[in-house]
């Protein structure tokens, strides 16, 4: 049987990668529930594997795992949406009070501007800021509320609540079969090298995805409860969202802190609540940096924060929310392949000569 030369192999792999990328881009609008199902199946595979080792067959183990996820996830999702809807309603109702409080706090600055620049009309500036802030804040809250109660609910109902669980079930049940079929198709001459890289990719993804998910959930719960105990309006929503987006390095904590301080500035008139809000984020960052991330994620995943941010930004621009979901797995795969490519380069005559 004639052998395919190296140049032909590179051409074949290049065509396959380009075709896969083009298909993903063209079908990006329908791939979201399928990708979500695959990710869920991957994340839950170790739990199903443990039940399988206890004597259960794979199908029964998959059913038990999916039932457990549904029992935990459905009430949590309903509670989360009710909480967001309630908090936003409270926010919209409190907008006039927020604006009035901000105007009172900004009045000394406006008076100083009037004294420094007599041509400015402080009262006109005050009225302009009051009207625009009130309208913009109400519009912002109304838009979010309509998304949560309207379009988002429809998307969740059709795709996430119907298609995703089905895909996740079959992926979880047949995960080993899929892996076996892929392994059987690997070229025999480079099978050992590909399997070694695949194991490193799996270790990287498992360490980051499963660990980071736990970190985000713990941080979101901590921030939400902490800000709520500080008496901050919207504290539950802002804190939980800050925790959820903590998978983007520094973005979750910084954005959550800025939003919390803006709300605290409008709501509170004394310093202790400000200090309490600052304390919540300082403690959260201390826990994340010294306990949560080292214990749950570790330093061995090999994904630099800058690389993660670049991958998320690129994925979001190219494929929207789907791109955000697959950005970290793709970044992990590229990172592992680049590390192996560099190792091979350093062993080659091109580097040694």
Q: Please, could you describe this protein's structure?
A:
- This protein is mainly α and 353 residues long.
- The protein has a domain at 1-95 and 149-185.
- It is built from 13 helices and no strands.
- It is globular and about 80 Å long.
- Mean pLDDT is 77; it is low at 1-5.
**Globular, elongated, flat, extended or rod-shaped: what is the shape?**
globular
Beta fraction of the residues? under 5%
Distance between the termini: 35 Å
Can you give the helix content as a percent range? over 70%
Judged by helices, strands and strand pairing, the structural class is: mainly alpha
Low-confidence stretches: 1-5
Number of strands: 0
Could you tell me the radius of gyration in angstroms?
Answer: 26 Å
Average pLDDT level: 77
Order of helices and strands: HHHHHHHHHHHHH
Largest sheet entry: none
The helix tally amounts to 13
Characteristic key phrases:
353 residues, mainly alpha, 13 helices, 87% helix
Please summarize what this structure is.
By secondary structure, this protein is mainly alpha-helical. It has a domain at 1-95 and 149-185.
């Amino acid at each position: 049987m004639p052998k395919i030369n190296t140049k032909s192999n590179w051409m074949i792999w290049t065509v396959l990668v380009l075709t896969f990328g083009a298909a993903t881009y063209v079908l990006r609008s329908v791939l979201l529930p399928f990708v979500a199902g695959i990710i869920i199946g991957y994340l839950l595979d170790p739990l199903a594997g443990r039940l399988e080792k206890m004597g259960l067959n794979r199908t029964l183990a998959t059913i038990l795992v999916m039932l457990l996820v549904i029992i935990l996830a459905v009430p949590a999702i309903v509670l989360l949406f009710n909480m967001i809807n309630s908090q936003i309603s409270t926010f919209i109702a409190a907008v006039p009070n927020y604006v009035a409080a901000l105007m009172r706090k900004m009045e000394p600055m406006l008076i100083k501007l009037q004294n420094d620049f007599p041509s400015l009309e402080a009262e006109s500036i005050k009225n302009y800021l009051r009207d625009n802030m009130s309208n913009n804040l109400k519009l912002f809250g109304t838009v979010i509320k309509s998304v949560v109660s309207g379009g988002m609910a429809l998307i969740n109902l059709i795709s996430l609540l119907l298609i995703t669980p089905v895909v996740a079930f079959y992926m979880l049940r047949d995960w080993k079969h899929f892996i076996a079929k892929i392994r059987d198709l690997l070229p025999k001459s480079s099978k050992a090298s590909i399997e070694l890289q695949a194991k490193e990719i799996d270790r990287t993804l498992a360490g980051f995805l499963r660990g980071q998910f736990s970190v985000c959930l713990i941080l979101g719960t901590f921030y939400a409860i902490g800000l709520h105990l500080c008496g901050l309006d919207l504290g539950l929503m802002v804190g939980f969202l800050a925790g959820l987006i903590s998978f983007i390095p520094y973005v979750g904590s910084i954005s959550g802190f800025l939003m919390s301080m803006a709300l605290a500035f409008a709501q509170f008139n004394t310093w202790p609540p400000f200090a309490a809000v600052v304390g919540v984020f300082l403690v959260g960052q201390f826990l994340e940096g010294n306990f949560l991330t080292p214990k749950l994620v570790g330093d061995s995943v090999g994904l630099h924060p800058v690389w993660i941010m670049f991958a998320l930004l690129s994925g979001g621009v190219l494929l929207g929310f789907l791109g955000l979901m697959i950005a970290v797995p793709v970044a992990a795969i590229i990172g592992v392949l680049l590390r192996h490519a560099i190792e091979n380069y350093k062993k080659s005559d091109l580097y040694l000569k």
